[in-house]
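TASK: fixed-backbone design
INPUT:
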């Protein structure tokens, strides 16, 4: 995916809510089913545009697992459009970004946003990132698993 392929409304919603998951939760709760599905797809596609998760990323001489690499890429997206774009375009390399993700000293530390993981609905507790919260909201509102819905058929 190219940087232009991620919808502007997605970045606007994410960047407007950041750093409050509660604000993002309110926005997601007010959106129709199709927007929630689009948000989840845009989030995943933006993360996948950074690297093939199965290839991993080498950090401190170790190749990260597919799951750890996916977590890193999802975190990058949660940092917002400017941070993601700088990473996609190569201004920042993923091993350098990983240092910030791990909370280690990094030149990027000033660019990092820590999300306030508090949510209002008890049903959304445990969905403590901007990438996973949509799944909790979807399940609460529509009684369906969003991942299953998106991968069916």
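OUTPUT:
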């Amino acid at each position: 995916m190219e940087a232009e392929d991620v919808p502007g409304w997605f970045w606007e919603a994410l960047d407007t809510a950041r750093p409050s998951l509660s604000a993002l939760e309110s926005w997601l709760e007010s959106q129709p089913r199709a927007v929630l599905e689009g948000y989840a797809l845009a989030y995943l596609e933006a993360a996948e545009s950074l690297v093939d998760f199965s290839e991993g990323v080498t950090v401190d001489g170790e190749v990260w697992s597919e799951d750890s690499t996916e977590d890193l890429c999802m975190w990058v997206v949660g940092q917002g459009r400017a941070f993601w774009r700088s990473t996609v375009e190569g201004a920042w390399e993923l091993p350098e970004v990983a240092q910030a993700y791990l909370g280690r000293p990094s030149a990027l530390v000033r660019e990092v946003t820590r999300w306030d993981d508090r949510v209002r609905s008890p049903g959304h507790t445990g969905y403590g990132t901007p990438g996973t919260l949509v799944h909790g909201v979807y399940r609460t509102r529509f009684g369906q698993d969003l991942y299953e819905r998106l991968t069916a058929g």
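COMMENT: The chain has a mean pLDDT of 94.
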